[in-house]
Amino acid sequence: xxxxxxxxxxxxxxxxxxxxxxxxxxxxxxxxxxxxxxxxxxxxxxxxxxxxxxxxxxxxxxxxxxxxxxxxxxxxxxxxxxxxxxxxxxxxxxxxxxxxxxxxxxxxxxxxxxxxxxxxxxxxxxxxxxxxxxxxxxxxxxxxxxxxxxxxxxxxxxxxxxxxxxxxxxxxxxxxxxxxxxxxxxxxxxxxxxxxxxxxxxxxxxxxxxxxxxxxxxxxxx
Length: 222
Ligand code: 5GP
Known about the structure:
Structural class: alpha/beta
Bound molecules: guanosine-5'-monophosphate
Strand order of the largest sheet: 2-7-1-8-9
Largest sheet: 5 strands, parallel
């Protein structure tokens, strides 16, 4: 299951993005927050290999802490059954995605599993942080590295499976991918697991509620 947010807070065609105000994340808005002494929040970035249960952990975290702003990514992939545009993702054509890149409206973007593009709309994240809301991204490793360059003060958290065999069986159990897609995701997972050392914290997701407890604690929520 994918995590969900209130659709009206994440309308990519509404107030979410201001095409007239491109700029580096954390520049003007961050400076204003610092000057006024407002409680600007740190961004939290969560990553981890396919089928590790990131979606479930994030959903549970949002249930417990509805004040968190969860970024809704733009993607060129098609919706899966049950996925809602504007809640799970902003589904769009490659042309529209390119437009967001050209207008500097994405904090980061990457081609994931070698197929589709995914990106984080910049403005809603900056607004949430400036308003003092904890903000959360769930993105792939390439995206993490880009956010690290742009927002080095963000908190980077890696979620690991208890074991490789467990990861494979969770992916198979999900049953939503073809054999070819599963092989591609496992290959990406192998690479991603080697990158755990690049993160500030590593959580082993052997029990969802405990992982949520640990994540909440790292985010200063509990
Ligand atoms: P799925 O197609 O299963 O929803 O997502 C595939 C992968 O895309 C996930 O592992 C997720 O971390 C990554 N992803 C989702 N949104 C973004 C994004 O905005 N940027 C980047 N770089 N990766 C993303």
